[in-house]
From TrEMBL:
It comes from the Eukaryota. It comes from Discostella pseudostelligera. This is DUF6604 domain-containing protein. InterPro entries: DUF6604. Residues 47-58 have a biased composition (Basic and acidic residues).
Amino acid sequence: MPPKKIGRKTNKKKGNKASRSSSATTPPTYSTAANNGTAAALPDMSEFERRTPIHPDDYPTVYQRYKNATKRFFVYMEKQARVVGAGIASDESIMSVNTLMNIADQMDSEGRTIDPMALKDLKLAIRVRSRVAKSLFGGGDSGHQHFLAVLTYCWTILDKLPKEASNEYVEPICSKSNNSYSQENRFEVFQDGIDDEELDDTDAEVFPSYVPRPEPEQQPMSLESLLNSDERHDAALFLFTLDNIMGMVSRQYQSVVQYHQNNVELGVSPSDIVPTLIWAAVATNMGIQQVHRMEIELSLQYPHLSNIYRLIATVELPDFSNKVISVLLEHAAEKVTEREVIVFLGDCLECSMGKTSAADSYNQAAEFIVPEFCTRYKVDTCGAEKLRQLVLGLTIFVMFEEPVAPDTMERISILSLMKSDAPLQEPHSWFANMSKIGGERSICHTIRLLQIFGDVLKQTPVGMAPIGEDYFGPSWVQGRPSNIAGDMDELLMADILPQLYLIFKHGILGNVELPMMDDIAPLWMIFRAYVKHPEKKVSWSLAFSVHALLTSILETDQITDSLLSLSECVFQKFFKQLEWADSALQNGSDSFLNGPSVCSIIRMVGAIELIDREVFVKRAIWNPLYAGSMLSYLTYFGNLEAGCLVVDNRAQLRIVMFLYHGLMLNGIIEIGQIPFLDVLYASFKNSRAIWDGELPHRGELIQKFWTSCGINLVDSKKWAQAAKELYAFRNLAGGRIDGIGRSLIRNRRMTRPKPEEISKSFRRVCNNDFHDVVDKYCIQELENQSKRSDLYAFAVRINDTLDAIYEEEPLLSFNFLSCAVILEQFVCGLIRIMKWDRMIRSRAENPSSQQEHRMGAMHLFAHHVLGALDFSLDPMDHEFCQVPLVRTSSAFLTTFFTEVDPLKVQWFNARNEHSGSEGHS
């Protein structure tokens, strides 16, 4: 199993300035016309098979879970109110927050029982709300603070009551609003997995044994009103989840460094690091997909928060919001809701984040946003001026909160006018309690840079690199950066973003719709949309993706240049093997693979090499996350998906597998003698396409071989019986192939092996199939924080996927396209050495037909070689065409595959030994 992630060391070595293969400010030498010609020459991948996920990712996010838990608890307590007679609202239909305390007190005084699941729901609601309240500026509004105090009080009362399960804990109940409570599963609460273990120190604070009874509110909120006004809590919880997922990304790349150091100390091959890069990229891309799902759900729940800046305003600008509301109460003729104020502030914040000049930002907001807002809500002249002053203050605040190098002189001027030598506030104060997206790793800073870059893209001529070098600060040097915000601005703005812009504007990723990109490398899809539509607002998915990329560089900073050269070398090795395979097909006169379909597949995959065009700055492509994503794409699409179309298209794989399996059944060969075949056998032994079900026993080889080739059961049994008569009863009349080849051609419908049959990690990554995931880990820290919420479920899925990659390393390291050629060379050689070629051609209806030739060879192989292995008492004691059948085939098999050059088929080293494992995430 992959090892437990080890913390990153803090001591960094100084390094020389990394050289760039081309200037970030110099556009590529090719023209748009030339590029269109390149695109026209690329293979058409639009009709390549695209799979629909078997088991879609539909588990709820954590904020939906705690809301459902709160609703279930309210429903339960409302039922108890009917039983105990506690007072509820006057209309007898709406329960307020105050009513909960009355019901709890009444249940306590009467000594009633409590359903354990109600306590679990209450515990989840308190846990989540407590965590969010601690993070919000000011702790949240008074209504929500009171609600948390009421829930905590109810816990102290209800937890002491006798526990007794109820069959009517949850029933379908519709609210008076347009929203409704859906039918709930009584046991859904257990999905949250809150265990009744001894409470740790944090729990003791969150769940005290006693609290004083809160004073009732004069105008208490109903549950519907409370949950509908819960957007600030939900927004903060969304950010917490982002921070947790980014923490997982950080740990993945810390493990890359540790593996690299271990490899250096042990003196093993440098390419041993490749699986770890793939692990980290797969985990990060799964994180990007999770963030995208969360973003969609949040926007559906709160449509106005689909704008990234409005969410930031909701969480971090309550003071500005209160000041705007005060101005409007005094100067606006129309009533304005708090939500509409957030929309106004978010739009002003977008102006402030998207410019490198505070003056430009303010002018844009003052000229367009403020007048429109004032007109809509009929704000008088005095109020409009006050709003403009607030917007100016917000603009200056943002300049000092997320400073960038181009606005340095403007900040100095502002400080001079204010007669102050100190900044207005310390930078990067937003999201202060979130260590991976706040502080010196501020994702808001990344958002500002992306917004600035997008604004430049709108004004950039086609083919030109948009931002010059050294505009955002000193150039990146390995070993020097310690923070994302500030230290990596120049790297992002002058190297990575401009070069990725060129890649997605002119390269293969911009001109060809590569299959399965959204499954394997969502990073590419998100950035492609950003380049194609720079006018669109920065999304959380984009910000998270770029921030994860910067995190991968920061965590591997001490070995970044080493990873760069290693990743590029392994990438090129894959395509050198493809060149060998293509050349072998063209030069192999007796091969049946050199048809147009096989060559087109090999060349289609070969087109992916264009991603590594030399005109691009290497660090834009070969940074750890992007490089790992490319290696993942090669693994799952270029290797497994495309490889499974070729590896057995002439039955070469199943001929080898049935021969190998038959020899082992008879004790002629053992596992471990031929490592090459051991890997293939272990990988394909569960493939229904190859074996037509389970592995065959002795006496079933021939029948299983034919049924797996698409022959009906009746004919398969008939031919197996004919072989049995020949080898079990020494009936030498058997063995004729007249008509057999033509019969097979008419009836044969051979099923190709599918990558999801041989690779669990393929099912996880490409099919999004997690139906059989098993939690084999106990990540105590994460469990304590999230109590098996959706974040815990997400971590379990990542762990399971990374375990699958670990177990499949030997398989994933095989280049299936070149492997197909090697297997075909073996089959062609077997036909020659067994002296079958002349017999097949002499009795074929069309001697020049490659398909009929192969069918004849398959019949001779099954009838004689498998027949002897199936039914003979001594398989080694049989000849056909004066050639010892089993003796010759087994000797040739052993000699051929033990002499296979690993450089032709293994594109990275699969590690054979690993240290022990705990969690990944």
